[in-house]
Amino acid sequence: MAVLYIVLPLAFIVAAAGILAFIWAARRGEFDDLDTPPLRAIMDDDPAVPTSPTQSSASQHPQ
Amino acid sequence: MTALSAQPGTIGTTACTHCGLDVPAGLVEHDAEHQFCCEGCRAAFHVIHEGGLAKFYALREREEVAMRAARPSRARAYAEFDDPSFQNLYCRACAGNLRSTELLLEGVHCAACVWLLEKLPTLVPGVIEARLNLRRASLRLVWSEDQVRLSTIARTLATLGYAPHPARGRTAEDIRRADDRRALIRIAVAGACAGNVMLLFIALYAGLFDAMDPAHVQLFRWASMGLSVIAILWPGGVFFRGAWAAIRARTLTLDVPLALGFGAGLVWGVVNTIRGTGDLYFDSLAALILFLLVGRFIQHRQQRTAADSVELLFSLTPTSARVVDGEATREVPIDAIREGQLVEVLAGESFPADGAIETGETRVDRSLLTGESRPVRLDVGDVVHAGTVNMSGVVRVRVTATGEATRVGQLMRLVEEGSRRKGAVVQFADTFAGWFILAILILSTVTAALWWQTSPQRAIDHAIALLIATCPCGLGLATPLAMTVALGQAARRGILIKGAESVEQIARSGGAGVIILDKTGTITRGRTALVQWWGSSEARSIAAAVEVMSSHHVARALTDGMPTTGLVVANFQEHTGQGVTAVVGGHNVRIGSSTFTQHAATSDEARAALATAQQCGLSPVVVVVNDVVVGIAGLGDAVRPDAAASVQALTAMGWRVIVASGDAPHVVAAVGAALGLRPQDCLGGLTPEQKTQLVRNTRGLGPVVMVGDGVNDAPALAEATVGIAVHGGAEASLAAADIYTSREGLAPVVDVMAGSQRAMRVVKRAIVVSIVYNVVVAGLAMAGMVTPLAAAILMPAASLSVLAICVRARTFEPKPAHDESESMGAAPALQGGA
Predict the structure, then answer these.
(1) B111–A46: do the CB atoms touch at under 8 Å?
(2) B216 to A4: CB separation less than 8 angstroms, yes or no
(3) Helices (H) and strands (E) in chain A, counts
């Protein structure tokens, strides 16, 4: 079980990396607004604004 | 008069394609595909269609709640948005020629709004990015200075119905944002530490190490100690700082026993780790810190929601004024106005500064400052104050004072003083802190003393176990969780509560306090309306049909709420300052003041009705058909339909209700009598300073709740134990108040009182549960039965039971059966016959 001496610190390093990533994201303001982004995701699923109708008709007839 | 029988409007309602409101009968185009209730909606519809964004309407229909698109607001140039001083204040320069700003928008409410607003770059070329924060209704804009001006973007937003306002108080928002981020980081660190410590302890508890190298046990103990030291000192540091602050202020808060438990657990844990033997409680401590931090964060966010909603309302005051510059006028930011300048104020606008009228005459609604409900006629040379509303004519005003030097500015200083005096409120749970510490310290000493005789080593272990296991986690969570749930329920019912302290303060008074109500805008509607009517309903229909033609504010009061009748009105004539004449169905109709109609035949009944109206402080309007008085309308500031029922409900709860107003004493007395109040509780003619003094004097007797809406109430709101600003209030009153209701009328005030009592009961229930738990655990610890494993099970169990009590509670959302209270005041506002 001597592997514990390597695995345990390794696990802590991974955890620390996760925390650092979170801190970085929080400082960038990723979590400032928790209400709007979920709505954004829903809307982008729909076919977007018909800015280029030719493109959408082309995709319907791949041949 | 049978020939004049009224036909109520029979035309079916047509919904506006853009905003969904009913289209007025006159505007329905029968062959058109799209119907619009106004030109604004038509313009918004075309802008959306031309941008290829018609999907907006489909998205909107997907919303479960029947949401309406924001109604386009009055056309405005937004020229001040391009002014250098405005740009300096609210905009930032980015790379290249890009600039960014943050605007608060009116009318944002749903997912479709997010979609439409973030498509702004396709609507307005030159806008690089638009990101909306739905909760704060704030739009972050990045635009290219070369391609588009900010005023153009603002105009487009206004056309779409999202009137933009610059986000004031940016620094405060930045500070709050930084606070939020730090809190999140603390939770993340506490969570990561707690999770990993728990994993290590699961291995330790499982007894896996019996068959293993003791060196590995030591490794796990040291590893868990390392993580726990981080968790207790970094995220847990807030409790130590809070405890230290409390001790320095010579008070005791819950942070003190919490810090004591954490400190004892940390020190003894480190000692035991270094010694290599003895119990460790690191897993329980780390989990506890995580629970407490999450609880506090959730409470914070809930209170933030209320503050955010009020923030938008703040920004609604005018940002610009029209300065007269030679022949022309130009729009400038309100902060750029200087003394001695001439500003032009249109009808319906509020005055941007204090000054004297130089040209023009008008009626001015001064209710904001004085509480006086009737508009005052002002002429050249008369003094006007910032914030009061110009009702009728165009006037030019020579500015004498701006900003803080104005009357409003002086009142705001009073508000600040009042808020400063209030100071911090001791939370109910904190009142236990002292007893708690005393009990824990005594019990752990007793434990140590008892066990000392059998085994000195175990004695310290058990005493420490008691200190840790009785750590008041449930107590610490009870208030935040219960208040968060209560504040959330209140917000859904249109009551925004800025801080949980207000709820506690109302509940603590137990109804043995005083409620001071403002009159204008709070008890009454704050605008001229029909209060009394003498005469037949036919006469009313005639009056309404004739007055539809007039734009006078008296006319609006007479036509409000009356259906379209189909009566044909001919020969309509307006006689300025006196009344109107017209021919309806062949009958001569005359409507106006009693002097305008004095030659008509007046019955004794009509004379009595006239006298009653005048006694009640109302302005009478006489309706004459064929030289006979057929109707007398008493116009005034109508008492809200729910006011009497609400006052009764408050009195039934035990509150003493007082009406305090700046309006004339006899008007206040009449309103008070209508509400069933004693004459000595109806105070009129008070200046804002006198109102504040009244609150201060009453505070000596007990808690005072002040309810008001205007700037004249703001200092009193700040001075009161709890200030409640009602719907439609001025920004100053919002700043000063602790609670804001976004529903009209006094019914929400009753809800606040009842809901606060219920919320406090939930808090007390949760506190009782956690104290019972602590008593049990203390007993077990004294018996030496609290092992680390027992603590790891018992402590979260206590927190979870408190959580269950708080989350299930209904405080501001009573069961549907009790909901009737809201409709009980729905009696018609008209009091038929005199």
Answers:
(1) no
(2) yes
(3) 3, 0
**For position B419, what pLDDT does the model report?**
65
Question: Which tokens in the block code for residue B224?
Answer: 């868990």
Q: How many residues in total does chain B contain?
A: 834
Residue B424 half-sphere exposure, CB side, CA atoms within 13 Å? Answer: 9
CB-nearest partner of B133 from A5, A19, A33 = A33
How many beta carbons lie within 10 A of that of residue A23, not counting itself? Answer: 16
CB pairs under 8 A between A and B: 69
With beta carbons under 8 A apart, name residues in chain A contacting B50. Answer: none
Nearby residues of B718 by Cβ (< 8 Å), 6 or more positions away: B414, B415, B416, B417, B418, B419, B422, B736
The helix-helix angle for B665-675 and B643-653 (nearest 10°) equals: 70
Query: pLDDT tens for residues B435-487?
Result: 888 888 899 889 989 888 888 878 888 888 888 888 887 888 888 888 888 88
Question: What part of B 230-249 touches A (C-beta under 8 Å)?
Answer: none
Nearest Cβ partner for A35 among B118, B119, B134: B134
Q: How many CA atoms lie within 13 A of B316 on its CB side?
A: 17
With beta carbons less than 8 A apart as the criterion, state whether B668 and B683 touch: yes
**Binary contact (B196, A15; C-beta < 8 A):** yes
What ipTM was reported for this prediction?
Answer: 0.73
Cβ pair B188:A23 closer than 8 A: yes
Residues in chain B within 8 Å Cβ distance of A14: none
Report the candidate in B745, B750, B749, B747 with the shortest Cα–Cα distance to residue B728. B745
In this complex, is the C-beta atom of B49 within 8 Å of any C-beta atom belonging to chain A? no
DSSP-H helix ranges across B206-339: 214-233, 237-248, 255-275, 282-314
Tokens (6 digits) for B158: 């206004």
| Best residue in A5, A10, A19 for a mutation probing chain B (most B CBs within 10 Å) | A19
A23: distance to nearest CA of chain B, Å? 6
Q: Which of B114, B122, B131 has its CB closest to that of A39?
A: B114
Q: Helix, strand, or coil here: B721? A: coil
Q: How far is A63 from chain B (nearest CA, A)?
A: 28
Half-sphere exposure for B703 (CA within 13 Å, toward CB): 20
Chain B partners within 8 Å of A33 (Cβ)? 133-136
Please, which residues have CB within 8 angstroms of residue B210's CB and are 6 or more apart in sequence? none
Token duo for residue B809: 């509670």
Q: Please, where are the H alpha helices in B119-169?
A: 120-123, 150-160
Kindly list the distances between the CA atom of residue B186 and the CA atoms of B177, B232, B682, in Å, as whole numbers in the listed order.
14, 11, 53
Establish whether B518 is a catalytic residue: yes
Nearest to B799 by CA among B195, B291, B180, B286: B291
pLDDT tens per residue, range B23-46: 766 667 777 777 777 777 777 787
Assign 3-state DSSP to chain A and report helix, strand, coil percentages, each to 5.
65, 0, 35
Is residue B699 a contact partner of residue B715, using CB atoms and an 8 Å limit? no
Can you spell out the DSSP letters for B304-360?
A: HHHHHHHHHHHTTS--EEEEEETTEEEEEEGGG--TT-EEEE-TTPBPSSEEEEEE-
Q: Name the strands in the sheet holding B320-325, side by side, starting at the edge strand that comes first in the sequence.
A: B328-333, B320-325, B342-345, B395-401, B354-359, B383-384
pLDDT band at B228 (very low <50, low <70, confident <90, very high): very high
User: Alpha-carbon torsion B123, B126, B128, B131, what sign?
Assistant: negative
Question: Do B122 and A49 lie within an 8 Å CB cutoff?
Answer: yes
Round to whole Å and give the CA distance between B789 and B792: 5
pLDDT at B188 over 90: yes
Torsion of CA B707, B709, B711, B714, to 10 degrees: 30
CB contact under 8 A, B177 and A32: yes
Reported pTM: 0.69
